[in-house]
Amino acid sequence: MSDTATTLLEIIQENVPDIQIDPATDGDRLLSELGIDSLDKMSILLAVQEKWDCEFTPEEIAELTTLNALCKKLG
User: Fold this and answer.
1) How confident is the model at residue 23 (pLDDT cuts 50, 70, 90)?
2) Are 36 and 16 in contact (CB under 8 A)?
3) In a 3-state reduction of DSSP, which class is residue 73?
4) H helices of 16-57, where?
5) CB burial class (10 A; 0-12, 13-18, 19+) of residue 70?
6) Which domain holds residue 27?
């Protein structure tokens, strides 16, 4: 697992502590399928933007529907 994925999972756990994610099997599942609702997603994305000092457009936010999509976006 990459450093980006590890950090992303840590951010998710901080923002949505009740869910368990296995990056080996859950990377391509929709965030909503993992139990992450739209409010949780925005909290996660705000934390990601702060951590990586970046900003997502509304179009990018709409496209970030899986963990792998987010990891790919962060590079």
Assistant:
1) confident
2) yes
3) helix
4) 23-26, 38-52
5) buried
6) 3-74
Which helix (DSSP H) or strand (DSSP E) does residue 9 occupy? Answer: helix 3-15
**50 contacts 7 by C-beta, under 8 angstroms:** no
Chain position carrying tokens 């997603």: 41
Q: What is the DSSP letter of 28?
A: T
What CATH number should be reported for the domain holding residue 10?
1.10.1200.10
The one-letter code for the residue type at 44 is I
Mean pLDDT of 22-27: 91
What is the number of domains present in the chain?
1
Question: Cα separation of 23 and 46, whole Å?
Answer: 21
Residues 58 and 67: beta-carbon distance below 8 Å: no
